[in-house]
Structures are given as C-alpha cells and as structure tokens.
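[09:14] KT: can someone run the structure on this one? pasting the chain below
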Amino acid sequence: MKIDIVVDRAAAQLADFVCGANEEGFHLTGVNWQRDAARGRVEDIRNVVAGDPSPDGNGTLLIKRGIEVGHIFQLGTKYSAAMNAKVLNEEGREQLVIMGCYGIGVSRVVAAAIEQNHDENGIIWPAAIAPFQIAIVPLNAQKSAVVHAQSERLYESLQRMGYAVLLDDRNERPGVKFADIDLVGIPHRFVVGERSLLENKLEYKSRRETQAREIALTDVDSFLQQYIPLR
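[09:31] RB: done, structure tokens below
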C-alpha cells in the first residue's frame, strides 16, 4: 500500500514476531523487519502502562501520581551574554558565566500538602504549615458570661505561650463552627462549654481523630507541652 508506515519503538525492537496476515483468521509467525516488512518511520506513539519493561532493563514500570512543587531552569549563557558577565576559567581566559535558577512554588507546596492530607470534611493541615495551630470554639458565649470569659482567658494565655490561635466567637450554632473548623483543617480544637466548665473541664479534639475527650482546666498546660509543641 502506498501509505506512510509508522512503527512504535517497542514494536521496532521485535524479532521473529507474530502479526496479522491481512486475511481474517490467519497470522504470520517468525516475522522480521526488512526481510518481511519495511520498518518505516520509528516513533514513540504509545503511552507506557504499568507493567511495561523498564527502559534500563531492570524490572518493570510502576505508575504513580505526583505533583511538581519546584523546578530548575538551565539558562546557559543567554543572560550572562546580555550582561557581559564573565569569569576566568582554569586557563586564565575569560568565559561567560553559565547560569541556572531554581524555585519552590509556595502555592504548589500548599496544594501538595492538601492533596495528601484531607478527608471528606476538609483539610487536615500538617502542623508545620497550618495557618493556626489551635482553634477555640466557645458554645453560646453570647448567653454565658462564664463561657465568654474563660474563652478569652484561654485565647490570651495560648497566645502568650506562642501558639497561633483562632477564637471562633461568631454567633453561630456549634455544628456550623465545628464544620468550618474541620473544613479549614486546624489541627487542634478546644471547645469551651458551660456544662464542661461546671466540672472545670474543656473538650479537646484532634483534627486527625474522630472522638473528642475532656481535659481538666488544671491539666491544660501539661497537655499542651506533651501533645501540641510550639513551632
């Protein structure tokens, strides 16, 4: 046939292979390029799949997803030539500086962190890059002077200790606040409620845990030192 023949690189390496015989139900065996068929133009026209032989001959390919968080650019002498930026080489002669640059994309690091740390409720920030370490959620602070005062005291105390704290003192239902804190992904949450305060306790929940637990007010400092280190 008077048409261009394009052969995939993997197929171009075959010898004594099996191919169609241009007749339904029949195949040719022991086929070799050049002797039995013109190889034509060799191109990379097939995407690799898991299980393909590795190009270096060692094992098979495994496909994984990834995200680019930084890149390197080889600039060569494009800019050094424009600036006439030169150095002396080993022979004492002037030569243009060979340049390069690299960068880490802050927004890409954030995207990668979220991609690897989330659930159906939202983000689960790694402690090192969380916008806030601790969220304080008062319950009905608008109606309870005790809850309001204790929440403010806890907020100011944690800030003095060096923690990045968010005080969610909005006039919203508890469920709305909890959902928002989970969505934003703050690693640690303290809930200040009138019922718990009657027992001199706070409710604590880690973003990575499903169950909350109670902590005595007198144990808050030791709990922080043990479970929530300063960054």
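[09:33] KT: thanks! Residues 145-161 form the longest helix (17 residues).
[09:34] RB: yep, looked fine to me
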